[in-house]
Design a protein that fits this description.
CATH superfamily of chain B: MetI-like
CATH topology of chain A: MetI-like fold
Number of domains of chain A: 1
Structural class of chain A: mainly alpha
CATH superfamily of chain A: MetI-like
GO biological process, one term (chain A): amino acid transport
Order of helices and strands of chain B: HHHHHHHHHH
CATH class of chain B: Mainly Alpha
Helix content of chain A: over 70%
Membrane topology (chain A): Multi-pass membrane protein
Shape of chain A: globular
Order of helices and strands of chain A: HHHHHHHH
Largest interface: A-B, 46 and 52 residues
Number of strands of chain A: 0
Chains: A mainly alpha (221), B mainly alpha (226), C alpha/beta (243)
Strand content of chain A: under 5%
CATH architecture of chain B: Orthogonal Bundle
Largest sheet of chain B: none
Distance between the termini of chain B: 49 Å
Family (chain A): Belongs to the binding-protein-dependent transport system permease family. HisMQ subfamily.
Structural class of chain B: mainly alpha
Distance between the termini of chain A: 33 Å
Subcellular location (chain A): Cell inner membrane; Cell membrane
InterPro entries (chain A): AA_ABC_transptr_permease_3TM (IPR010065), ArtM/GltK/GlnP/TcyL/YhdX-like (IPR043429), MetI-like (IPR000515), MetI-like_sf (IPR035906)
Number of strands of chain B: 0
Oligomer: heterotrimer
Chain lengths: 221, 226, 243
């Protein structure tokens, strides 16, 4: 047993890089998946719509932690051994994609129907309408909640600690196991998370005020 | 891929799974009720004329929203004993979930309260009704009704997120799932079954929350909009 | 003795002065119509009487008591003064009955039974007894405004204020509200109303007060005032309301 020192803080900061890396992976992967799902949700093919919708319902209706356990513990039984970071990246990607899909579908559907009608009456195909007319307009309403969900992603990466991946939360546990000073250790961990998340929250809020002139309701844990 | 699923290996633990689901639901309902109460108080602070109260409530909301639930849980479970307050795993779990839900509820309830037009307050106080009574009988019920959908989806999110309290060994569905898979080495099946149970809990919560709305908001019932 | 006494009332919003040195006395049982263009300060004046607008100078005395901006005295005062607003301001989450009985139970500490009896009485008075169980949005605008009047009447006020209560209503719905108000006047209720209904003011009011640029520009009984307006502003105003 020893005291909590600046070395430990350095260790936590280094671990925070993995939190950032994992967040970035989940953001990029979730973004791609979310885009595909969002298109599926507004597709004219009924089967695609239902499939995307089913996926979203299941992912949003079950805990991220359970999804992570399935990838980490479950898949290894099938013979493919996933390292904690790969399992975490997959789970976070699949989880985030469902949320991004819903955020972006909402933004796309917030664009007035008249835009679809006038574009198609000019002879644009459905895809051209989406790409040249609808998407550029939905960017503005989509941006604030997208940034807002990035805060959720950063916080969600802490679950990777529970499959043993040494990111910020797990590093905190390790330091605590040595120092037995939970209060300063976890307070320090919280401060680092706060330092990452707060600017994103503030940015999201600023964007919201600029887009809507008011704040929208944030939900999360 | 020669894995054969053996769900029987999991289902024979059904009493444990049922107990786990019940515990998850109990944790969530307590955190929901207490969190909503905090939300109402917090929202009142956020709109109060006292700068100090506004700052405290604002800081609370920001701290919770910008740190992971898992870290909040660790602070309560490992940190509080350092201050001489020893909590059981369940107590720490409920405390962390309540603390977390309270912050999100604060912002949601505040939005609801702020959406109620000033003229409602004028009409009420013009009848000699006090400011506190006006808040409780005129502003708050309407505000809650307006943001109820947001509150309900927040509560479902919280129920699902409550699985992280298994990290300190709090006895709920995920913790029991972990226990079962450490006995039967059937992680895949165990967590699939857990996922299915959570999915069921999600629908159950939605039904319960809709039932609460039905009772709590007679106007919407009368107008057929529930 | 006058039930309402305003003396030297001043009020401004920042640089904008809305009331300049207004003095007015209203006798018990009188019906006073405040008329004037929008922005002339008549609604503000009305709202000063029950303390909804704090004043910057002068004094408002109602029923022998000075109107002060502290909660306890305002609560006391407002039990004596009913006010009806342009936009009805019913409580949308409560039934018509509960709209009427809320203040009865919270302020007058009446039992549910007593409250219900009062609600039945005042709602009958405005012809809406059968709507007790309805919610405001199930009613027409005219009906909602009549419920708002009943809600105020239930408190047995000594004075009723009406702030452009028919302005938001379609012409055919105005009549039903004006009829209720006329009935109240006949029964001897003291009423101060801000209105654009010149015919109503002419017929029902004992005194018409013409406001212009935050001042009382001209006042007197409607028979004289409308027949021989003294100032060019009032003459112009009357002409503008004719069409």
């Amino acid at each position: 047993m020893r005291t909590f020192t600046s070395h430990d803080i350095l260790f936590l900061l280094q671990a925070a890089r993995w939190t950032l890396a994992l967040s970035l992976l989940a953001f990029v992967g979730g973004g791609l998946g979310g885009a595909i799902l969002a298109v599926g949700r507004i597709s004219r093919v009924r089967a695609l719509r239902s499939l995307a919708s089913l996926y979203i319902q299941v992912v949003q209706g079950t805990p991220l932690l359970i999804q992570l356990f399935i990838w980490y513990f479950g898949i290894s039984l099938l013979g493919a051994d996933l390292s904690p970071i790969v399992a975490a990246a997959i789970a976070l990607t699949l989880y985030s994609s469902a949320f991004f899909a819903e955020i972006w579908r909402g933004a796309i559907q917030s664009i007035a129907k008249g835009q679809w009608e006038s574009a198609s009456s000019l002879g644009l195909t459905r895809f051209e309408t989406l790409w040249y007319v609808i998407l550029p307009q939905s960017l503005r309403p989509a941006l604030p909640p997208t940034v807002g969900f990035m805060v959720q992603i950063v916080k969600n990466t802490s679950l990777a600690a529970l499959v043993g991946f040494v990111e910020l939360a797990r590093a905190g546990q390790l330091v605590n196991n040595i120092t037995f000073q939970p209060l300063p250790v976890f307070a320090c961990v919280a401060v680092i998370y706060f330092a990452i998340c707060f600017p994103l929250s503030a940015l999201s809020r600023w964007l919201e005020r600029r887009t809507h002139g008011h704040r929208q309701l944030v939900r999360g844990t | 891929m020669s894995y054969t699923f053996q769900f029987g290996e999991v289902l024979r633990y059904w009493p444990l799974l049922v107990q786990g689901a019940i515990n998850t639901l109990v944790f969530s309902v307590i955190a929901m009720v207490a969190g909503l109460a905090i939300g109402v108080v917090g929202a009142s602070c956020r709109i109060s004329s006292s700068r100090v109260l506004r700052a405290i409530a604002g800081a609370y909301v920001e701290v919770v929203r910008n740190t992971p639930l898992l870290v909040q849980l660790f602070l309560f479970y490992f940190g509080l004993p350092a201050l001489g307050l020893r909590l059981s795993t369940s107590q720490a779990a409920i405390l962390a979930l309540t603390f977390n839900t309270g912050a999100y509820s604060t912002e949601i309830v505040r939005a609801g309260i702020e959406s109620i037009h000033r003229s409602q307050i004028e009409a009420s106080t013009s009848l000699g009704i006090s400011r506190l009574q006006t808040f409780l009988h005129v502003v708050l019920p309407q505000g809650l009704e307006r943001v109820y959908p947001a509150l309900a989806s927040q509560f479902v999110l919280m129920m699902l997120a409550s699985s992280v309290v298994s990290a300190i060994g709090a006895e709920e569905l995920t913790a029991y799932g972990n226990r079962i898979q450490s006995e039967n080495f059937r992680a895949m099946e165990v967590f699939f079954v857990c996922a299915a149970v959570y999915l069921g809990l999600t629908y159950l919560m939605r039904v319960l929350l809709a039932a609460v709305a039905y009772v709590a908001f007679p106007r919407r019932r009368a107008l057929g909009s529930v | 003795m006058a039930i309402v006494n305003l003396s030297g009332v001043r009020k401004s919003y920042g640089a904008l002065t809305v009331l300049r040195d207004v003095s007015l006395a209203v006798e018990r049982g009188a019906v006073v119509a405040l008329v004037g263009r929008s922005g002339s300060g008549k609604s503000t004046l009305l709202r000063c009487i029950n303390g909804l607008e704090p004043i910057d100078g002068g004094e408002v005395v109602v029923d022998g008591r000075r109107v002060e901006q502290n909660e306890a005295s305002l609560r006391q005062l407002r039990q004596e003064i009913g006010i009806v607003f342009q936009s009805y301001n019913l409580f949308p989450h409560l039934t018509v009955e509960r709209n009427v009985t809320l203040a009865l139970s919270l302020v007058k500490k009446m039992s549910a039974q007593e409250g219900r009896a009062v609600a039945e009485k005042v709602l009958s008075q405005v012809g809406l007894r059968e709507k007790m169980a309805a919610y405001p949005e199930q009613l027409s605008g005219g009906q909602q405004q009549r419920v708002a009047i009943a809600r105020s009447l239930a408190m047995q006020p000594k004075l009723m204020l009406f702030d452009e209560v028919t302005s938001a209503l379609d012409p055919e719905l105005k009549e039903e509200v004006l009829k209720v108000m006329e009935g109240l006047a006949r029964e001897g209720m003291t009423m101060i109303l801000v209105t654009h209904e010149m015919d109503f003011a002419r017929r029902v009011a004992d005194q018409v007060v013409f406001m212009h640029q935050g001042r009382i520009h001209e006042q007197g009984p409607p028979s004289r005032l409308f027949a021989e307006p003294e100032t060019p502003e009032f003459r112009q105003f009357i002409a503008s309301t004719l069409n």
